[in-house]
DNA sequence: TTTT
DNA sequence: TTTT
């Protein structure tokens, strides 16, 4: 069906890069703090703390370019998993698998936009450089 | 910042309607099964099971019109909470607070769209019935 | 940056399948009618009529499985183009490039969900069938 | 049905604030340049140029705090309109009605998040400060 | 009519 | 604890 999440927020800590034991695929994880747009009863602005998972090249870009406090945009999907905890109980996990991560701590680029500061997701293109549908 | 989730899926069970103890506000909860668009290593299509929370009038509409297996669209935001579990440990919960729920198994409407089959969220309108910006 | 649109609505007419002149890539176009969730001053429910473009295999699936009135979900991005009109003026076009189309006229599937009724976008998988990040 | 668009991009010019002739409601418009995440055949990064409409208090905030080049996040819905052009032809317009605008070039806040730098959308709260659904 |  |  459809499953889409878009977030803008800041990393609560430096990202953690690991590699899967079998295939050696890069995977980076971190928690994103997303300020709410409304305040609570005490007039305080709270935040949601959302676990993010990034795979492959983007995982390495995130590990290289991001740190605690970095502002990013995430476009991804919700994933749920469950596992057996140490106490024998089933534990349920919800996290966002990021398909596109944008770095937003914008010191404006010096190159007029040709490079992309680690935002290198050119493999995910749907472009056909031709023709005009409507 | 930004926090937006859109889902289309089916209820795993009948929705549960309750009222908050102090203010008596209606709140309905259910789990949404969202089929993935890709298959796993065994060629099987898996799903994510995502907790949904709906408040107020929409909570009552959901309780009245939805049941196990109903197909719906959800437009909302991710919320995280944590609480102390019985074993003294902190437990983390991630759920979607639905701001808009659309009922989708329904036959095309016979009334030309005047009624809205329980999808009554007219209070959330941004419409200004006047003028043309661009 | 980020550019994401999610829609649920019905085709206003049968979809149109064409092929690009040079590369012969399949492209399907149609207009999606998306009912608004609020009513206008006259208490009528209006709709937005949004041009959709679908490429490649999904274009052919759409042409094969959809028709006027079909209910679908679209996950894509906004694209703007401009061209010189017959009168010599520049004309501006905004349309949604669908990256994922879901067929929602649910006659429940008979196969327990193994097949996918033309919703075959398995090439867009980010899955790594291994490991547990958090 | 569902209609949701999320964008992150930069204003191509200073925003324009007007007031509707009858009700005197504030409305601000601007074009958002959204860089694509992929490059074209020539290896250049292109952008989409998307018309944004903001109403009421947020319109005034945008006019006060934004200018050409400002980086923002937009959460809104697509709206289509048509009108008769001077040449007697029907012209079709697609634009994003912003329900939530986030200002993103801003330095991390010094006040621990109490204020909100013109991002004052507290009227759109769904919060019930009580109870734990799941 | 396009931002960085 | 999972829908079709």
UniProtKB/TrEMBL annotation, chains A, B, C, D:
What would be one Pfam family of this protein? SSB
Query: What InterPro entries does this protein's entry cite?
Result: NA-bd_OB-fold, Primosome_PriB/ssb, ssDNA-bd
Specify the domain of life of the species encoding this protein: Bacteria
* Region called Disordered, residue ranges: 106-134
What are the TM regions of this chain, as residue ranges?
Answer: none
Which GO molecular function entries does the Swiss-Prot or TrEMBL record give? Answer: single-stranded DNA binding
> By its UniProt entry, which CDD domains does this protein fall under?
SSB_OBF (cd04496)
Annotated Gene Ontology cellular components are: nucleoid
Q: Which GO terms describe its biological process?
A: DNA replication
Keywords, A to Z, come to: DNA-binding
Is the keyword DNA-binding in the record?
yes
State how it assembles: Homotetramer.
**Matches recorded under NCBIfam families:** ssb (TIGR00621)
**Name recorded for this polypeptide:** Single-stranded DNA-binding protein
Species whose genome carries this gene: Proteinivorax tanatarense
């Amino acid at each position: 069906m459809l499953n889409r999440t878009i977030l803008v927020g800041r990393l609560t800590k430096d990202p953690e890069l690991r590699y899967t034991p079998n295939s050696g695929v890069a995977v980076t994880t971190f928690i994103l703090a997303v300020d709410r747009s409304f305040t609570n009863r005490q007039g305080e602005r709270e935040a949601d703390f959302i676990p993010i998972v990034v795979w492959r090249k983007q995982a390495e870009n995130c590990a290289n370019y991001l740190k605690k406090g970095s502002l990013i945009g995430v476009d991804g999907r919700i994933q749920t998993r469950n596992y057996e905890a140490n106490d024998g109980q089933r534990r349920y996990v919800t996290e966002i698998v990021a398909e596109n991560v944008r770095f937003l701590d914008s010191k404006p680029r010096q190159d007029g936009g040709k490079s992309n500061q680690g935002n290198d997701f050119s493999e995910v293109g749907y472009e056909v450089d031709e023709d005009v549908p409507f």
